[in-house]
């Protein structure tokens, strides 16, 4: 096998491509995360609602999205959705980086459907008696939520949310199918231009791993710092 | 829509088969199933290594599992795509490449499922078996694994759903699975992307939702039965 020379992909033009891809991957992750959290919370509250229609709508959203691969979501949003838009909106979309916008839309729907389930089961895991006991002790509804229920729910909800964040980070790689210029896209581009497969994919894998390990470490730290207490 | 299904329905289901290689939905299902069945033994081995008392075995395997779980599947597919031919010295087809990537990736995930399954079996079971004179291998084979696997059945069905969804990534290396076929159809028809990709999405939904209901039903059933009885009898 040929000599490995990592300097080819860690200097000059190729390095620039990879770094820009890495930054876009991070940006996709952050934007999607910020958009997903409120949507997921809203869906989780819908699914816990006493109104049957809201519960049904929440279930349709979650099951409908989770049972379709992310790749198919991406293909749909990128190739099919623009056809449904009026001409001006479509032109606007293509003028403003359709690849990234569609990637964020697909990732947001996909991630929020998973996060919604984590939030729902976290809230359900706090026994109703906790709220009742707080109310019986004279706390108002808001105060009992803030001081009794939420502190317990957060401990349960955060670890799965962190692991969803890890999945989100890894899922950004799939957006390469619609040509979003994130890390995986740039890696393929560098590989094609340099014929340095081992070096390119080695560096790319390390880049993915480093962020994954940071997220994993965060999860371990949280688990250690805020363990779930038996109620 | 009806015309579309009439013209491309069969292509969507089985690809160019029987004139060419099997593809489409059939390939997606077969590949997902094969990947899961092959990944399970790998997952069991990795889980046993992770639970081993020997550090020399436990640490490297733990590291490998963390690395694979921290890497996107697409990255694993690219490694397989570019380096299986180098390693084996011959051209590797897309199906083999995808299968290898899926087995490795799912093996690492299943390892954690199996580990949780094994750890969920009360220690008394192992101790009783060992005190009855069964060796390590026999205890695992006759006592621990049958119970653990039975409890894991719902998770395994869910893992199958995940694997089916993951086979769609074969699209990127030109594997003729159902998402690839759908985009082939789309580029031939051109004017009905909503119908084509909508059908693709609905197909996946029907398949995966159905399976996840099965997993849910299994979970309910297992929860009703006591843990020890059937195992003692088998």
Structure description:
The complex is a heterodimer of chains A (231) and B (234). Chain A is mainly α and 231 residues long. Chain A has one domain: MetI-like fold (Orthogonal Bundle), CATH 1.10.3720. Chain A has ten helices and no strands. In chain A, helix 2 packs antiparallel against helix 3 and helix 8 runs antiparallel to helix 10. The longest helix of chain A is centred in the first third of the chain and has 37 residues. Chain A is flat and about 70 Å long. Chain A starts with 6 loop residues before the first helix and ends in a 6-residue tail after the last helix. The model of chain A has no long low-confidence stretch (mean pLDDT 92). Chain B has a single domain, classed as Orthogonal Bundle (MetI-like fold). Chain B has ten helices and no strands. The termini of chain B are far apart. Chain B is 81% helix and 0% strand. The longest helix of chain B has 32 residues. By secondary structure, chain B is mostly helical. In chain B, helix 3 packs across helix 5 and helix 5 crosses helix 7. Chain B is globular, with a radius of gyration of 21 Å. The model of chain B has no long low-confidence stretch (mean pLDDT 91). The chains are: A mainly alpha (231), B mainly alpha (234). At the A-B interface, helix 3, helix 4, helix 8, helix 9 and helix 10 of A face helix 3, helix 4, helix 7, helix 8 and helix 9 of B.
Instruction: Name the structural class of chain A.
Output: mainly alpha
* Helix percentage range of chain A: over 70%
CATH superfamily of chain B: MetI-like
CATH class of chain B: Mainly Alpha
| Share in β-strands of chain B | under 5%
| Cα separation of the termini of chain B | 53 Å
Please give the largest β-sheet of chain B.
none
Give the full name of the CATH homologous superfamily of chain A. MetI-like
Secondary-structure element order of chain B, as H and E? HHHHHHHHHH
Q: Please give the domain count of chain B.
A: 1
* Count, helices of chain A: 10
CATH class term of chain A: Mainly Alpha
């Amino acid at each position: 096998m040929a000599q490995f020379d990592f300097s080819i992909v860690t200097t000059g033009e190729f390095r620039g491509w990879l770094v820009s891809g890495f930054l876009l991957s991070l940006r996709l992750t952050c934007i999607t995360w910020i958009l997903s959290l409120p949507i997921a919370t809203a869906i989780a509250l819908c699914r816990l609602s006493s109104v049957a229609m809201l519960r049904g709508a929440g279930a349709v959203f979650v099951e409908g999205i989770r049972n379709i691969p992310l790749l198919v979501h991406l293909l749909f949003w990128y190739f099919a959705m623009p056809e449904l838009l009026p001409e001006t909106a479509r032109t606007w979309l293509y003028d403003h980086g359709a690849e990234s916008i569609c990637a964020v839309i697909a990732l947001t729907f996909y991630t929020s459907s998973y996060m919604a389930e984590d939030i729902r089961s976290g809230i359900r895991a706090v026994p109703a008696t906790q709220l009742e006991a707080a109310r019986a002790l004279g706390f108002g509804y808001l105060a009992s939520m803030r001081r009794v229920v939420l502190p317990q729910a957060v401990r349960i909800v955060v670890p799965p949310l962190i692991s969803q964040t890890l999945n989100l980070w890894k899922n950004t790689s799939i957006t390469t199918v619609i040509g979003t210029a994130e890390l995986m896209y740039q890696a393929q581009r560098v590989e094609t231009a340099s014929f340095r497969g081992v070096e390119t994919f080695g560096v790319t894998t390390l880049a993915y791993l480093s962020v994954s390990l940071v997220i994993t470490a965060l999860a371990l730290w949280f688990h250690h710092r805020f363990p779930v207490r038996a109620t | 829509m009806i015309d579309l299904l009439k013209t491309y329905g069969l292509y969507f289901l089985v690809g160019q088969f029987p004139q060419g290689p099997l593809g489409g939905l059939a390939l997606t299902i077969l590949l997902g199933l094969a990947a899961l069945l092959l990944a399970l033994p790998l997952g069991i081995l990795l889980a046993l290594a992770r639970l081993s008392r020997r550090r020399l075995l436990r640490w490297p395997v733990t590291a490998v599992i963390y690395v694979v779980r921290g890497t996107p599947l697409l990255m694993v597919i690219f490694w397989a795509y570019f380096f299986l031919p180098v390693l084996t010295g011959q051209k590797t087809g897309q199906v083999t490449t995808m299968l290898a990537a899926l087995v490795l990736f799912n093996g690492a995930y299943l390892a954690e499922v199996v580990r949780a399954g094994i750890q969920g079996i009360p220690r008394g079971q192992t101790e009783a078996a060992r005190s009855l004179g069964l060796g390590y291998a026999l205890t695992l084979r006759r006592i621990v694994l049958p119970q653990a696997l039975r409890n894991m059945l719902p998770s395994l069905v869910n893992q199958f759903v995940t694997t089916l969804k993951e086979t769609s990534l074969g699209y990127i290396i030109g594997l003729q699975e159902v998402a690839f076929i759908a985009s082939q159809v789309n580029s031939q028809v051109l004017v009905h992307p909503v119908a084509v990709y909508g059908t693709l999405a609905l197909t996946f939904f029907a398949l995966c939702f159905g399976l996840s209901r099965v997993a849910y039903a299994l979970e309910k059933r297992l929860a009703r039965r006591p843990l020890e009885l059937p195992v003692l009898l088998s």
